UniProtKB/TrEMBL annotation:
InterPro entries associated with the record: GAF (IPR003018), GAF-like_dom_sf (IPR029016), HD/PDEase_dom (IPR003607), PDEase (IPR023088), PDEase_catalytic_dom (IPR002073), PDEase_catalytic_dom_sf (IPR036971), PDEase_CS (IPR023174)
Catalytic residues (positions): H850
Organism encoding this protein: Saprolegnia diclina (strain VS20)
Protein EC: 3.1.4.-
Region of interest: Disordered: 754-777
Gene Ontology process terms (BP): signal transduction
Protein name per the record: Phosphodiesterase
Classification of source organism: Eukaryota, Sar, Stramenopiles, Oomycota, Saprolegniomycetes
Family: Belongs to the cyclic nucleotide phosphodiesterase family.
Length: 1107
């Protein structure tokens, strides 16, 4: 709008001043009013325009989402139809009825022999296609729209109508695949707006170059119908339709693997679009690569993210369409694994997962019968990619779970191999056979480092050798880093010489075998992926598994090295003892000691320095190269050790300020690692032993220090012995000059003066032998081991009863009894047992906590504790319980809270309930539970204890009553005190009645309060349920005017809730379960959960947030 310009007329200038002023004011007022009105109108028009644009945009977006959802629904039906085209036609008909809000819709499908008609129930040859609007739609390929059939001359009811249907509006919509009409949708009595339908009709008549949602959808449906390959043979008429639940099950088939769905998607694409090649790439985020999930007659392929068209689509998340690859600058020959293929057109569509992130790429190559891919092709790819995204996402989850299971099982197998085998060759062969399949490697080789010869030795039959520092293997040994290459020939991280060694290999994984100190013992070499592997490279999960394999190999190598070293040390020590006992030459004995020391410590050289405290010098003895070398007490590392008496261990000796390189010159070696230890006698340092250069390791370790001290004890013994021999030196056999020098040094280590020579020699003390006796192990009291086949579903510490139906809880309870042979042992008919168990279940009330799920949990925890003892390798634990005890434990556990009303003993006593009056305020609920238990057993057909002998029945009944009464928290502290006193091996007597009673009571009581020993997810559910009962009791106490228990007002998910759980764990659960864990076997899982749950609650109190 343009604003009007108001001007004062000329006549106004001729008026008198007074009239002139009045006229100007009036004109100004009118002008201002007009401008205000114009401004308001302009703003109103702007608002209408903006609102119209917003509505048009919103409606368009809603329609677009609706069409996309419909396309996705049709694609889902194609995936789940199992080649039943009627299900697909039903879904197409539903979409048209939904779009048009119509009463009825008929589908007509063109085949080579005629037209088939689908009325929503069955498919049969059509008789209505011969004439009328339907015939014109097929022949001309244009939609026929009759808004009002009653008044229209175009619509003839005899030709176009349906029997029994009052037609008010009519739409006949042809579905074209290219220029050919493949089907027609005939819609009756739509309730959509006439103008909206007319817009749809107009859009269908628009050019293919201007596609819209309905055009794309109609051609989408046409290509789906074409892909169904419907034959003219009439299908049988259906009398019923699948229910909503069954349709939902079809929409998400659990029995169809993701690979089968992906293969089906590729098959659909080939049927719906004439293409030469179709590839589905999945994104491997940790490896930043895409690998082919579907490949027919081709090896697995991979592409780096960002490389080529596929990599660019994965990186950007946007589809790319190359209408002519030969002229497109983005394309080059061989891009995207297309070597040897003639490529003309390319369509790459990103596959989006349910989390909204790209998890793959769909690649289509060479569209036939079309110059390029159309907008309908884009829509088909988009719909299929949505489905593929879900399948790839699910497949990745399943693959991760499967790989985790395979990894755990593989590592478990490796640990079993290490446990069962001791021969390193057998271990290596077994490990290679175990890991070949999980790793999916074409070839696996294991090399061991030979530090003496600086070579890598292949662990196979011929034990081939190669230089330790050459190539990629040498690089791995030198750096200790994992080398994982997806494409070795093109990997620029390595030199050309290194890559040349693996010129014919694509994937390579090298993992160092390192011990706890990081020392490289060898290398695991995995070359190439097998043809069956889904990826043609080693991903991060493969790398993690390979590191685990290397870890177990390191253990095996270390064990082998330790075993070999132990043998060598044993031989060397025996040799040293032989030297000490057999050598009579005073000077040569040190040479033998030095040689034995090198063998013991696996060192290159050793030197012994005798300390002369009179002259403050150290003199070398025992080595020909350093014979007679004298050091002052402040010279070199030996001098420092002699002065301080503290051993020195160095991985690199050169940087040490006391290191003396002159010794290297004498020995003709270069010192790397060094260990120097004092030789002490009578609290006096009499010598220093120094060894250099560990052969098979970079340095000496603390174990070597301990071994050196043991050697020094022997050396001290030698020196002491030779010093005593000086007292009886024979002058008739004159000493050499060296012997005299040695004797002078030795003379200072004895407290007596050297007398005249004597030929007497002290007698060696006789060797004493010690014998040990072993006691025979007692036999187990349970006659037969539990039946694992019957218990396989319940031997699980992580069993979550909240996820199980009530019927399955009873089945699991029966499995526990039957697995311990209780039904056979005591002749319990299965029907009798089931009646008893169902009656017990029905007597548990529907309260939040003390319900049958809690009873089952208590029984299950009791069962697991008993099972752990019955299968224990410790004979003492396996004999703790007999069959009668197990029967009493199981019945007491499942019945210990029967008829519990969700209120505590204190509540019953304060409220003076009839139950409290009946049992005189003494363990009110527990007495009631025991009474209900045996009252149930008295019912006809419920007595599972019927065939017990009289002594057994008395014992079992007494034990059940004691077990149930012991669940009263009033006795908790006294029980813990008794357990501290009695639950000790050597103190506990399983045949003593008092100890046996304490054990049975403790097992069920610990199971009753075992919620903190469960997994955190299950534990928190129990704490919330308990808070519900506490809150209900608090509110009832307030209503009845009773003094309430303050802690019962605590609300779930509050900081007080967390503090209450910490207090319960610290004061009740942990003291009891820690004793049980120390005395019984197999409870480590519970203790671990207990600590994790406590940390969980502590974290909640620390953060100050609601739980």
């Amino acid at each position: 709008m343009s604003a009007k310009v108001f001007q004062m007329p000329d006549s106004a200038r001729k008026r008198p001043p007074a009239e002139l002023d009045h006229a100007v004011l009036k004109k100004t007022k009118n002008t201002n009013d007009a401008r205000l009105v114009a401004r308001r109108r302009w703003k109103m028009i702007q608002g209408h325009v903006l609102l119209s644009r917003w509505l048009r945009k919103t409606v368009g977006e809603n329609n677009h989402r609706k069409f996309c959802k419909a396309q996705q629904s049709l694609m889902d039906s194609l995936f789940t139809s199992q080649d039943d085209f009627i299900d697909v036609l039903l879904k197409i008909r539903e979409q048209f009825v939904s779009f048009m809000d119509a009463e009825n819709c008929y589908m007509y499908i063109a085949t080579t022999r005629g037209v088939l008609e689908f009325d929503g129930q069955s498919v049969y040859p059509s008789t209505r296609i011969q004439n009328g609007l339907l015939h014109r739609a097929f022949e001309q390929g244009i939609p026929m729209h009759v808004p009002t059939a009653v008044t229209s001359d175009l619509f003839i009811d005899e030709k176009d109508g349906l029997d029994g249907l009052d037609v008010r509006s009519y739409l006949c919509m042809p579905l074209q695949n290219g220029s050919r009409v493949v089907a027609v949708a005939e819609i009756f009595n739509y309730r959509k707006g006439i103008q909206t339908i007319q817009d749809y009709v107009d859009s269908l008549q628009s050019a293919i170059d201007e596609p819209n949602d309905l055009t794309v959808f109609s051609r989408f449906v046409a290509q789906i119908v074409t892909s169904l390959n419907i034959s003219f043979e009439p299908a049988q008429r259906r009398t019923s339709f699948p229910s909503t639940a069954s349709l939902a099950a079809l929409a998400t088939p659990s029995d169809i693997s993701s690979d089968a769905v992906l293969q089906r998607a590729v098959g659909l694409l080939h049927r719906m679009m004439a293409i030469d090649h179709c590839r589905v790439y999945a994104l491997d985020v940790p490896s930043n690569s895409l690998f082919s999930r579907v490949f027919r007659n081709q090896p697995s392929m991979s592409i780096r993210v960002g490389d080529g068209i596929v990599g660019a689509v994965a990186e950007s998340g946007k589809a790319m369409h190359l209408t002519d690859a030969s002229t497109d600058p983005r394309w080059s020959i061989g891009t995207d694994n297309t070597s040897g293929l003639a490529i003309s057109t390319v369509l790459c569509t990103p596959i989006i997962g349910p989390d909204g992130r790209v998890n793959g790429v769909l690649q289509l190559l060479n569209r036939r019968h079309e110059p390029s891919f159309t907008s309908v092709d884009h829509a088909i790819c988009s719909a299929i990619c949505t489905h593929l995204g879900v399948e790839i996402y699910n497949a990745d989850l399943r693959a991760s779970i499967s790989k985790a299971q395979v990894k755990a099982q593989t590592l478990l197998d490796l640990s079993t191999i290490l446990f069962q085998e001791s021969d390193i060759k057998v271990i290596v062969r077994a490990i290679l056979a175990t890991v070949q399949r999980p790793m999916g490697a074409a070839n696996i080789r294991i090399y061991v480092t030979d530090r003496e010869k600086h070579e890598l030795v292949l662990c196979d039959g011929d034990r081939r050798r190669r230089p330790m520092h050459d190539g990629l293997l040498g690089h791995t040994v030198a750096t200790g880093d994992v080398c994982n290459s997806h494409d070795v020939p093109s990997d620029t991280r390595w030199t050309l010489a290194w890559r040349a060694e693996y010129s014919d290999v694509r994937a390579l994984l090298l993992v160092p075998i390192k011990d706890a100190t990081g020392f490289v013992l060898g290398v695991v070499e995995m070359v190439g992926k097998s043809a069956e592997a889904p990826k043609n490279y080693f991903d991060q999960e493969d790398e993690a598994l390979a590191i685990g394999i290397a870890y177990y190999l390191a253990i095996a190598f270390n064990n082998a090295i330790s075993a070999r070293a132990a043998v060598r040390r044993s031989d060397a020590l025996i040799k040293m003892l032989h030297v000490v006992s057999s050598c009579t030459d005073v000077s040569s004995v040190f040479e033998e000691v030095i040689t034995a020391t090198c063998e013991v410590l696996d060192a290159e050289h050793a030197m012994l320095f005798l300390v002369n405290h009179i002259e403050n010098t150290l003199t070398s003895r025992g080595s020909e190269k350093t014979k007679g070398c004298v050091l002052s007490m402040d010279q070199g590392i030996p001098g420092e050790v002699a002065a301080t008496g503290v051993p020195v261990i160095l991985s690199e000796a050169t940087p040490h300020p006391k290191f003396d390189a002159s010794m290297d010159a004498l020995l003709g070696v270069t010192t790397r690692s060094l260990l120097c230890v004092p030789v002490v006698s009578r609290e006096k340092i009499i010598a220093v032993l120094q060894v250099i250069n560990k052969r098979l390791a970079p340095s000496f370790v603390s174990d070597d220090v301990a071994l050196m001290k043991a050697v020094c004890v022997e050396i001290s013994s030698v020196i002491e012995r030779r010093s005593l021999e000086l007292l009886f030196h024979d002058e008739e056999h004159p000493e050499t000059e060296l012997q005299k020098v040695t004797s002078d040094f030795l003379a200072q280590f004895t407290d007596v003066h050297r007398p005249t020579p004597s030929t007497h020699h002290p007698a060696s003390p006789p060797l004493q032998e010690t014998t040990t006796t072993t006691a025979s192990a007692p036999t187990a009291s349970i006659s037969a081991l539990p039946n694992l086949d019957k218990l396989q579903d319940v031997v699980d510490w992580g069993l979550n009863p909240f996820t199980l139906p009530r019927e399955l809880l009873v089945v699991h309870a029966q499995s526990m009894f039957d697995g311990f042979h209780l039904l056979d042992q005591y002749q319990m008919p299965i029907k009798t047992f089931q009646r008893f168990m169902l009656s017990v279940r029905d007597q548990y009330r529907s309260v939040a906590y003390h319900n049958f799920i809690h009873a089952f949990t208590t029984l299950h925890m009791t069962f697991l504790v008993v099972y752990a003892q019955a299968t224990s390798k410790k004979t003492a634990n396996a004999s703790l319980l007999n069959v009668r005890d197990v029967l009493a434990l199981f019945i007491g556990a499942v019945c210990h809270d029967m008829n519990h009303n969700g209120r505590t003993n204190e509540f019953h006593i304060k409220a003076k309930t009839s139950t409290a009056m009946l049992y005189n305020d003494q363990s009110v609920l527990e007495n009631m539970h025991a009474a209900h238990c045996f009252d149930t057993l008295r019912r006809p057909g419920h007595n599972i204890l019927e065939h017990l002998t009289s002594p057994d029945y008395i014992y079992v009944r007494k034990s059940i009553i004691r077990i149930i009464l012991a669940t009263d928290m009033h006795f908790h502290s006294n029980m813990v005190k008794m357990l501290h006193e009695r639950f000790k091996h050597g103190v506990f007597q399983h045949d003593a009645e008092a100890d046996k009673e304490l054990l049975l009571n403790a097992i069920v009581h610990s199971a009753d309060i075992a919620n903190p020993t469960l997994s955190t997810s299950v534990h928190t559910l129990w704490t919330e349920a308990l808070m519900v009962e506490f809150n209900e009791q608090y509110e009832e106490e307030m209503t009845l005017g009773l003094s309430p228990s303050g802690f019962m007002s605590t609300r779930a998910h509050s900081p007080d809730h967390a503090r209450m759980n910490i207090a319960f764990i610290d004061s009740c659960v942990f003291p009891l379960w820690s004793i049980m864990h120390d005395f019984l076997d197999g409870l480590s899982v519970c203790i671990g959960n207990l600590h994790r749950n406590r940390e969980y609650w502590v974290a909640k109190t620390t953060t100050g947030q609601d739980v």
